[in-house]
Amino acid sequence: MKYQISGKQIDIGxxxxxxxxxxxxxxxxxxxxxxxxxxxxxxxxxxxxYCETIVxxxxxxxxxxxxxxxxxxxxxxxCAEKMETQxxxxxxxxxxxxxxxxxxxxxxxxxxxxxxxxxxxxxAEPESLQPMIxxxxxxxxxxxxxxxxxxxxxxxxxxxxxxxNEKTKGVNVVYRRDDGNVxxxxxxxxx
Length: 191
Prior knowledge:
Elements: E1 2-7, H1 14-31, E2 35-45, E3 48-57, E4 62-69, H2 72-89, H3 91-98, E5 107-115, E6 133-144, H4 146-155, E7 160-165, E8 171-176, E9 182-185
Parallel strand pairs: 1-2, 6-7
Antiparallel strand pairs: 2-3, 3-4, 5-6, 7-8, 8-9
C-alpha cells in the first residue's frame, strides 16, 4: 500500500510516519483486502491536532475517518480506531459484494463544479440566470450496484453519491434523507 503522509503547516517526523504506516497498515490489512493507497493529513487548530485519513481499495471503495486530540499521536490513534470500527462493521458486506468481483470497479471521468452562492455574488441582481462557476474539478463516477453505492456513501460519510448503475448502465443517485433513511434516484424508471 502506498502512503502519503503530510502536515498542514506542521512538520511530520520520521517516527510519526513509521507509526502511521505500521498501525494503519495492520488495521486496513486486517479488515480489507487489496488496499491501494492511504492519504493521511495532520493539521493543528488552536491547541488540538486533527488527523484525516482516506484509504482507497482496489475494489473502488473509499474509507474515510477523522480524529482530534491535544497530542498528535492520540489524534492519529483515534482516527485509526474509527477506521478500524468502520471497516470491521462493513467487513461482511465488503466480502459479500466483492467476492465475485475479480477486477476493480470501473470508473468514469466527470467534471465537478462549484457555483457561487447568492451571498458571494458581487451584485444584488444577477445579469443572467447562468450561475457563476468559481471552481472546476475532475471527479470519479464509479460503476456500482445499488448496495455498493449505499455502502460507499456510508463509508465516506457523504450525504449523496452519484454512480453508474451496474445493471442498467445509467447514472443513479443515492442520498441520505432527513428521516435517516437512504433515497435512491434512478432516472427513466417509473414506479
